[in-house]
Amino acid sequence: MKLLAIFAHPDDEVFSCGGTLARYADEGHQVSLICATRGEEGEIVHPDMEPNSYPKGPERGLLRVDELAATCKALGISPPIFLDYQDSGFPIEVGLQNPQAFMNADIFKIEEKILDRIGSIHPEIIITFDPHGMYGHIDHITIHRAALAAFWSAGSVMQPAPQRLYYPARTITQVEEMQRRFAGSSNSDLDPNIFGVSDDSICAQIDISRYADRKRLGVYAHRSQFGTEEHINELLDGRPDFFRFESFVLGGARGGFPADRLNDLFDGVG
């Protein structure tokens, strides 16, 4: 079977569901990734990388393309498919000043591009960001809107159409724990009741413990964004759940959905 992940920037994939992607690739499923932008506006935090050597724009985008390719290799999934939009940057004011930014693109044209890729891949499962974009990034919300629309439109324009749409999710308790652990960071003020979900909203919890090493290598590959391996380990080793399981809520389904919480995203998919 086939799974298609649809995200906005290089690194979204591994932090959202890297273990799940690695698991299904290892089990023999075709796992593909759409990335809307090349992350041209991402900040460089690695101490051994000089930001001026990779100026924001195409040159930084090329760096991040290479990093994403390395992540895909580490996870064992197909090379990324780019939609060729420009990273809007963060905060939102950056994108407002750039008419070419992804956030300013025609949402129906984005949907059309995604539909074209769905038509060539024919995935049973699609994964993308939740309506709040995990932590509110406008590009995350934009790709959510377009992927959600494409999932439903696919039922009218192609057969077979994707059967399930999932969103990676963190529970309210997990967001509260992140607030405590990362107090003072850029995302420590996220409202758990907006950016987290209730426990009973989780429709699937995927055991990724066998793929922890692959997920860690996938994070390491995005070195410009997250720094040295030592720094990454310091951040993540205090979050053991990050390497044990990944949770999902249901964004849409065709043909019904099992009543109980799943431990396999393909459960019941025919």
UniProtKB/TrEMBL annotation:
SUPFAM superfamilies: LmbE-like (SSF102588). Transmembrane segments: none annotated. One of its GO terms (molecular function) is hydrolase activity, acting on carbon-nitrogen (but not peptide) bonds, in linear amides. It holds the Pfam family PIG-L. InterPro entries: GlcNAc_PI_deacetylase-related, LmbE-like_dom_sf. This is PIG-L family deacetylase. It comes from SAR324 cluster bacterium. The lineage of its organism: Bacteria, Deltaproteobacteria, SAR324 cluster.
